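Hi team,

As requested, here is the filled-out complex form for the HEL run. I kept the field names the same as last time so the parser does not choke. Let me know if anything looks off before we queue the next batch.

— J.
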Amino acid sequence: RALPAPDMTGVWNVLRTVRRQGAPGAIARIDDRNTAHWAALGVADRRTGRAISNADRFRIGSVTKTFSAVVLLQLADEKKLKLDAPVNRYLPGLLPDNRITVRHVLSHRSGLYDYTNDMFARTVPGFEAVRGKVFTYRQLVNRSLSKPRTTKAGGAYSYSNTNFVVAGMLIEKLTGHSVRTEFRNRIFKPLNLRDTFYVHPGKKIPGRFARGYLTPDKAGAAFVDATEQTVSWAQSAGAVISTTQDLNTFLSALLGGKLTSRAQLAQMQRWVPAGGVQSYGLGLRRRDLSCGVSVYGHTGAVQGYYTYAFTSKDGRRSLAALANTSNNGTVLTSMRGTLESAFCGKKAK
Ligand SMILES: CC1(C)S[C@@H]2[C@H](NC(=O)CCCC[C@H](NC(=O)C[NH3+])C(=O)[O-])C(=O)N2[C@H]1C(=O)[O-]
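And here is what came back:
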């Protein structure tokens, strides 16, 4: 069933709203078959006042998880990995429970505790303590294992960054290459994502980018410029840099069946409830919109940057949106409105 025309007025209204709610800048781009629509409001840099634009690169946070899942599903296609095999078959002794499988990890049903809960319990001190740090995957996993599991293996959905740190370890063990090399060779280059990078442990965003502003916990306290950080606390769970156009290209290619076999794409869309109108597959979120349309992609929250990146079932219409602040739940919730405008069109009066 054809989608209604995107409602760009609605998108502009969402960007105006999030600016009012505290975001220095916000952008959105819709790629609808061969037609692109975009909107941009506010600043990429509060010091210089430079206007933000859809040409600006930014940190995509957990949208990175979809990239990591794609690489592992490609390895499944290449018979180098079985989704229902225990993680410990590929990484002997890593996890304390041999029943935790690759599928459990990619669907947040491993029970592995999310170490970022403690790391960022106090937003600014937590961030300042790690922004320049470089962690090994094992250090991050050990932080998780120092806490009790949140569920038994294969139990209920419980979001945890730890799962996609384990995904990065699997990628490196099964390929003998770094996550950076595998992202580049399997996704960035084939799709010609010229503005998409994995620079860990580098702290700088290459080229032209939007600065990211972390909202402190204390009301009224000044923004913290969070642009420069290693994102080593997340790596294969959150360290990719991209643009709205490249994210649209990526998700369109994924749901369009260009990155994995149909069989693995179907595995990626075996859904578990993830709260409200959300479901989670393997490194992929499904959101059921008010007009009955479901969209597929991921959201991201990394210091200074909130991202939405979703596409239609056939990948022919995609939306990516970014607000360059974080730790501001009102902005994160309001940004969801870009999905309704992009895929449900104008609200019936
Ligand atoms: C589930 C989410 C929203 S959170 C998860 C992941 N981001 C993180 O785990 C970092 C959380 C701390 C970020 C920080 N917040 C605090 O420090 C709060 N004390 C801020 O807002 O900048 C990501 O990205 N995911 C989003 C996702 O998957 O959609």
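Two things worth flagging: Residues 27 and 40 are 4 Å apart (CA to CA). Residues 61-62, 116, 120, 123, 126, 159, 161, 214, 238, 299-303, 326-327 surround HEL (CB under 6 Å).

Thanks,
J.
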